[in-house]
Amino acid sequence: MSEKRITTPLTEEAIADLRSGDRVLISGKILTARDAAHKRLVELVEKGEPLPVALEGQIVYFVGPSPAKPGQVIGSAGPTTSGRMDSYSPVLLELGLKGMIGKGYRNQEVRDALIKHKAVYFGAVGGAAALIAKRISSAKIIAYEDLGAEAIRELEVEDFPAVVVNDIYGGDAYQEGRAQFERKEAAGT
Amino acid sequence: MRELQAAAITDAVARLAKEACYFLPKDVVDKFDSALESEESETGRDILSQLRENVRIADAEEVPLCQDTGFTVVFMEIGQDVHVTGGDLNEAVNEGVRRGYEEGYLRKSMVTQPFGERKNTGDNTPAIIHSSIVPGEQVKITLLPKGGGAENMSALAMLKPSQGRQGVVDFVLNTISNAGPNACPPLIIGVGVGGSFDKVAYLAKKAILREVGSQNPEPHLAELEDELERRANDLGIGPMGMGGRTTVMDVFVEEYPTHIAALPVGVNIQCHSARHKEVVL
């Protein structure tokens, strides 16, 4: 199984080609946001006010990087746990967000929203933060600078490694992967 | 009575913070290598090789292995014949955290008022400090940067004594199963059994510091560790939860006498970025 190369912004065609369990290498511009930035974005949507970033066709990466050392584009930058964004993600998908990168389970509401709005959830390797930083060629803060590590950044990435967790067909790499390798004597525990 | 300057403790903590966040212990790296050999899932092997490469980059460039440089948990074993002079001991530790996290470009993740304002303290203090008094005239400091994702999936139960060994096994496996991909497997599982509500969590936390591959010297605990490790890996969760044979790198169980009415069990989950570093002053 080789990796599929995809570039941002994500097209409908590219999304339709992705299946849960596919390994991908992502290139192009992506946005970052985690807990605090999501909270602010959704509060703006609820008030009917414009967002500081355009989400259509974009991928949001759930990350709060460590501070950059002198000479670094960005500090270590692995994914954070996505489940904390579950209450916000459906709102952003409604606005045209097409991809999310994080780690860990999404709830049913998010998985349903991915199918409805034809978007994809990717899992990156948690803790591979020094490696992922090497695949980021530029980083600039574009909103909420006061949030520090949690500010919204625009990253230029090259061959960012990830796995399709939830596709637009209802596939789930966590469930499928586990079912494939589970030894049943462990069941019922 | 030996005198030890508080400043020496600050220096040691600052250094430990940086080194712990940059350099993964050899026993953990060796386990990545052996898991790469034994893992049957192709995606699982790909993830393990990314982790191996990540270790190489962090080591060569002296950058954090993971952006989450954690709660700073500090264990101090203080010899009873040591006299700390020139400052407050706990403040000396916090000053070391402050300095190490700033100088080391480590992320500051501690916030005040957990259900309210959640304002970042800006320097990763306060540390979570566990001190104990031991014989001798040395101070052993162990620093454990503990990531939030795995800590969030940890759990504690006050079982009924009648639930016995089976109750312990079920609770540990359920906790690992619920954690799934969220806690960044392959995991190290620290299990405490017995003591009180607070003691059992402490036992579980201390257990994750053990060397990967080690066994509890008590035969009944070593046997429990083996069974838990085998059955956790049979869950099929695999590296980063994508499916595979390597769900845990090791399971460590520690026990303590308890009350006639009690059977406390604590499960502290450590992600694969199992960072810790110690020094003896």
Characteristics of this structure?
heterodimer, A: 189 residues, alpha/beta, fumarase, five-stranded mixed barrel, 7 strands, 25% strand, B: 281 residues, four-stranded mixed beta sheet, globular
Number of domains of chain B: 2
Number of domains of chain A: 1
What is the CATH T-level topology of chain A? fumarase
Name the chain pair whose interface involves the most residues: A-B, 48 and 53 residues
Give Rg of chain B in angstroms: 19 Å
Taking all Cα atoms into account, the compactness measure Rg of chain A is 16 Å
Tell me the span between the first and last alpha carbons of chain A.
33 Å
Quick one: biggest sheet of chain A? 5 strands, mixed, barrel
- State the total count of DSSP E strands of chain B: 10
Shape of chain B, please? globular
Q: How many angstroms separate the termini of chain B?
A: 14 Å
- Supply the CATH architecture of chain A: Alpha-Beta Barrel
Indicate the CATH class of chain A: Alpha Beta
What does this structure look like?
The complex is a heterodimer of chains A (189) and B (281). With 189 residues, chain A is an alpha/beta fold. Chain A has one domain: Fe-S hydro-lyase, tartrate dehydratase beta-type, catalytic domain (fumarase), CATH 3.20.130.10. Chain A is built from 6 helices and 7 strands, in the order βαβαβαβαβαββα. The radius of gyration of chain A is 16 Å and the shape is globular. Chain B is an alpha/beta fold. Chain B folds into 2 domains: 2-20 and 65-146, no CATH class; 149-274, no CATH class. Chain B has 8 helices and 10 strands. Chain B has helices at 6-22, 26-38, 42-61, 89-103, 148-151, 164-179, 197-207, 219-234; strands at 2-5, 71-79, 82-85, 128-134, 139-146, 155-159, 187-195, 248-258, 263-270, 277-280. In chain B, the strands form 3 sheets. A 4-stranded mixed beta sheet of chain B has the order 4-2-5-10. A 4-stranded mixed beta sheet of chain B has the order 6-9-7-8. Chain B is globular and about 55 Å long. Chain B starts with a strand and ends with a strand. The model of chain B has no long low-confidence stretch (mean pLDDT 97). At the A-B interface, helix 5 and helix 6 of A face helix 3 and helix 6 of B.
